[in-house]
């Protein structure tokens, strides 16, 4: 059996995956930095949307391991790990002797500003080494144009590492489409590179370089000759926007009945004997359905269930109702399916016409006709009574399954046993990788992990994990942590060094549904390898909305390194509130705020994009008051936690469907700032994918698995696209037209001038009054309020735009637009005035000293401009004039903190008010810009309302 399964896996990849790979069209070519370009120089191109590339290049004296992803159609993000031959990583051989060559991490960005047209080139702006040591920092602007169908040319200008003008050309012969000749003018200033005087970099000068490229499907190779040496660059490209990489040739067929299938019972027979319900439950259990509850409520067959394997909710429900049609009583009028995750109801599917349902599954009628007999509601339909959780439980499957290569978790080999009540045992090898420690640039850990999950009651689960270390190189890590924060993560090597069996998790999770849109979890036990505790989470996930909020609170105790029930002295309470917001193009933004693991308070921003294949890529950045001065952090600029992550659904790589995902992240593994406890059972992670399926198009997904429907958007979602420019253009046109139509501009400008002159006359006395009370506590607090209130107003405007109804959302957007316009106008005045900040001895109009940035000029106040710009649309739309008073008090706080003169905040406030008032009057009628997705059982489409006038 196993040999046959392995055969199917290999042949599936060979027959489906490899031809797909080699049929892939040529992609844009990365340079040695990972950015699309030539040899060392970039072009204005970015890769096809969703292209993920990684490769290795050698360009004496640099070895470059790089990766790149086209995160959005106009944004390319590249990361590289550059080693310098001949330079030791650490001068102290006792401390970092095993680290090898000097290595440095770099993140680069490229923004496509303008697409190429018939006459104009494409233009991109790039920034290299945007964080960390910034040894390779630089910026550039580059334009690229296809001069002929097979000839591309680029011209650009750079600053810092790329110094001055550069360019490149690529010629791809029509007769040899896989081959390209390239040439470039390399403008890198290698002599300013780190350690250039000690390496071959000092011998390199600006000048021409030529190369030859070959591409075969996803694989590419470049060989180039530069003035003093040769270079090589090899890569693999993976298109993340492909739906799947391997065909599902081993997917079990849906239920079609058996030759000995008993006749459907009458309703009386069904109620008299439980055998019919048990037969249906058995048939469902064989298809990986879990927590199966079945009941006849009047003439409706109600099923409550989830599925441990099938990744699409619509397909899961389709298989359930298809099976139910073979067993339902003859008098059944409708079938209702409550889809659950961990017994929490996500949605209720109602099928009102069983003959139509049967005809649709048999391919006799189209989807539009079928949709007229279906309804989908969030959570549990209130008409459905809760089902008995004690009935229809099946016993543990007989025997133990040993799977090689073909298991549904994607492990190489595993031992599993499970049942329909979601009780499960799983044993498989695991491997962890750790980079960039002074004791060695690369460490790994190989272990065997046994997981046992047990359902104890409705929504109550025991979750455990026992790990046995088989082999690791982490024992080579000798350097103790020198972090000044509580060692919540920086001692991880001490935990990994222990090879004895360890109980990494022993946790009770109680999942609850508080309302159709509110879910909760209570947890207690051993959370993870380093912490134990008790806590919980509450999630509000509204129906057919693109946002959700949750609160996570945990009281935690640090565990000792032995991995059982011992403890360390450290205790803390972690509390984080999170807002998750789904943006266009499959992008989800998450903002977390609160107390982190090391008792540091702050915020964490996460941004990720989900591609058509289901793969998610993103990054996070955390800013807290925890002062991590461990290098590269310094007392003046503490380190902030940051990293990249990739989530890969294993089903995209296997010949059958599965829900299992693989998580990968790249971040420092010995940092304490901005850390979070690992809590198995995060509600948003559990619910977001099924919610996304239910809210997409008609909510049925691949319901019937019909061959003639695989091109439908609900089955195979189209590549994500988002074009905001038409709406932006319309708003700009309306604002410009309204400005021309305003007939009171002269009077308003005259009144503003009078008020401004009066404020200028009061600059000295007002400044003197606050100077005399600068030690007053109330004045100090006023200054803090004035500094923070504009930030709060922007945040509230953004929340109104993201979370409000149509009226509130439009007002919030106008407030944000007004704030941007006000800051732009204020910046122009700052550049012109170059006014010095106030002090006790300054004259009001003294110029700033030489060397100070004009954008830091005192005149005008950006804070005041933002405050009035953001509150004005709300004050006018909702008739709330008191908001102006709050803005005025906040603006005066900038005088209290001695950051501005009275005339600064006066002119800034007038500017903000003018922008807010103008844009509100221009854009308050949001019906001109409104577009919405229509997804009902009767129709699917996009409606755009643009009145013609």
UniProtKB/TrEMBL annotation:
InterPro entries registered for this protein in UniProt: PAP2/HPO, PAP2/HPO_sf, YbjH
Superkingdom of origin: Bacteria
The residue ranges of the Phosphatidic acid phosphatase type 2/haloperoxidase domain are: 811-920
Entries under PROSITE patterns matching the protein: PROKAR_LIPOPROTEIN
SUPFAM superfamilies reported in the protein's UniProt record: Acid phosphatase/Vanadium-dependent haloperoxidase
Q: Where is this region: Disordered?
A: 835-856
Tell me which Gene3D superfamilies the record gives: Phosphatidic acid phosphatase type 2/haloperoxidase
Q: Would you tell me the protein name for this molecule?
A: YjbH domain-containing protein
């Amino acid at each position: 059996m196993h040999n046959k399964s392995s055969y199917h896996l290999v042949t599936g990849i060979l027959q489906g995956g490899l031809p797909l790979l080699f049929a892939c069209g040529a992609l844009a070519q990365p340079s040695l930095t990972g950015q699309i370009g030539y040899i060392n120089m970039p072009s204005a191109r970015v890769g096809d949307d969703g292209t993920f590339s990684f490769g290795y290049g050698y360009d004496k004296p640099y070895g470059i391991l790089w990766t790149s992803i086209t995160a959005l159609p106009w944004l390319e993000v590249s990361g590289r790990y550059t080693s310098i031959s001949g330079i030791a990583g650490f001068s102290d051989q006792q401390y970092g002797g095993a680290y090898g060559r000097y290595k440095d991490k770099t993140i680069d960005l490229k923004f496509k500003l303008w697409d190429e047209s018939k006459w104009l080139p494409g233009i991109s702006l790039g920034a290299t080494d945007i964080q960390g040591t910034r040894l390779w920092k630089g910026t550039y602007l580059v334009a690229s144009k296809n001069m002929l169908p097979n000839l591309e040319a680029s011209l650009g200008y750079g600053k810092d590492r790329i110094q001055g003008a550069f360019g490149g050309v690529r010629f791809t012969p029509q007769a040899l489409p896989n081959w390209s000749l390239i040439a470039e003018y390399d403008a890198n200033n290698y002599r300013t590179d780190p350690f250039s005087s000690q390496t071959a970099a000092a011998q390199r000068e600006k000048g021409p370089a030529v190369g030859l490229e070959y591409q075969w499907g996803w694989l590419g190779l470049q060989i180039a000759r530069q003035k003093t040496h040769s270079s090589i660059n090899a890569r693999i490209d993976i298109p993340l926007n492909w739906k799947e990489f391997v065909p599902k040739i081993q997917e079990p067929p849906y239920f079609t009945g058996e030759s000995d299938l008993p006749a459907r019972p009458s309703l009386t027979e069904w109620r008299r004997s439980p055998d019919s319900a048990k037969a249906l439950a058995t048939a469902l259990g064989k298809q990986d359905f879990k927590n199966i509850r079945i009941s006849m409520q009047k003439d409706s067959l109600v099923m409550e269930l989830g599925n441990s394997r099938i990744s699409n909710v619509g397909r899961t429900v389709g298989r359930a109702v298809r099976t139910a049609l073979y067993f339902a009583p003859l008098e059944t009028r409708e079938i209702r399916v409550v889809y659950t995750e961990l017994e929490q109801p996500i949605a209720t599917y109602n099928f009102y016409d069983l003959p139509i349902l049967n005809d649709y599954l048999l391919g006799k009628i189209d989807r539009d006709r079928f949709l007229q007999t279906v309804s989908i509601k969030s959570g549990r339909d209130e008409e459905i009574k809760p089902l008995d959780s004690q009935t229809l439980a099946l016993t543990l499957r007989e025997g133990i399954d040993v799977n090689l290569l073909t298991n549904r978790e994607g492990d190489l080999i595993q031992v599993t046993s499970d049942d329909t009540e979601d009780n499960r045992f799983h044993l498989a090898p695991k491997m962890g990788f750790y980079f960039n420690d002074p004791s060695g640039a690369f460490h790994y850990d190989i272990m065997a992990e046994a997981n046992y999950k047990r359902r104890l009651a409705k929504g109550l689960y025991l979750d455990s994990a026992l790990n046995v270390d088989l082999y690791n190189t982490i024992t080579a890590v000798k350097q103790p942590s020198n972090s000044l924060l509580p060692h919540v993560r920086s001692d991880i090597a001490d935990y990994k060094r222990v090879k004895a069996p360890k109980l990494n998790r022993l946790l009770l999770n109680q999942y609850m549904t508080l309302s159709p849109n509110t879910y909760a979890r209570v947890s207690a036990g051993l959370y993870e390898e380093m912490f134990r505790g008790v806590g919980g989470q509450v999630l509000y996930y509204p129906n057919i909305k693109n946002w959700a909020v949750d609160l996570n609170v945990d009281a935690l105790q640090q565990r000792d390194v032995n991995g059982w029930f011992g403890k360390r002295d450290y205790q803390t309470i972690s509390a984080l509130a999170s807002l998750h917001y789904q943006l266009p193009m499959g992008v989800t933004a998450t903002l977390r705020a609160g107390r982190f693991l090391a008792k540091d308070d702050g915020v964490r921003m996460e941004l990720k994009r989900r591609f058509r294949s289901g793969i998610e890529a993103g990054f996070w950045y955390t800013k807290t008051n925890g002062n991590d001065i461990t290098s590269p952090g310094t007392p003046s600029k503490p380190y902030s936690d940051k990293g990249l992550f990739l989530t890969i659904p294993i089903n995209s790589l296997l010949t059958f469907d599965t829900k299992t995902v693989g998580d990968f992240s790249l971040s420092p593994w010995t940092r304490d700032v901005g850390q979070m406890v690992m809590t198995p059972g995060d509600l948003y992670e559990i619910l977001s994918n099924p919610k996304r399926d239910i809210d997409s198009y008609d909510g049925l997904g691949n319901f019937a698995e019909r061959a003639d429907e695989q091109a439908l958007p609900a089955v195979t979602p189209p590549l994500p696209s988002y074009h905001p420019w038409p709406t932006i253009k319309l708003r700009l046109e309306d604002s410009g037209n309204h400005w021309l139509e305003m007939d009171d501009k002269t009077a308003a400008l005259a009144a503003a001038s009078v008020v401004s002159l009066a404020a200028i006359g009061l600059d000295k006395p007002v400044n003197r009054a606050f100077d005399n009370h600068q030690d007053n506590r109330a004045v100090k607090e006023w200054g803090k309020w004035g500094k923070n209130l504009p930030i709060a107003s922007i945040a509230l405007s953004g929340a109104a735009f993201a979370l409000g109804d149509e009226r509130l959302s439009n007002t919030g957007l106008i407030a944000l637009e007004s704030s941007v316009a006000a800051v732009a106008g204020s910046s122009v005045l700052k550049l012109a005035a170059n006014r010095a900040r106030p002090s006790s001895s300054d004259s009001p109009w003294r110029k700033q000293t030489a060397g100070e940035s004009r954008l830091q000029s005192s005149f005008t106040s950006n804070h005041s401009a933002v405050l009035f710009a953001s509150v004005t649309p709300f004050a006018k739309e909702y008739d709330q004039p008191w908001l102006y008073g709050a803005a005025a008090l906040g603006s005066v706080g900038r005088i209290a903190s001695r950051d501005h003169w009275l005339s600064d905040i006066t002119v800034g406030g007038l500017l903000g008010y003018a922008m807010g008032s103008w844009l509100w009057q221009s854009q308050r009628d949001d019906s001109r810009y409104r577009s919405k997705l229509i997804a009902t059982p009767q129709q699917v489409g996009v409606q755009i309302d643009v009145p013609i006038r």
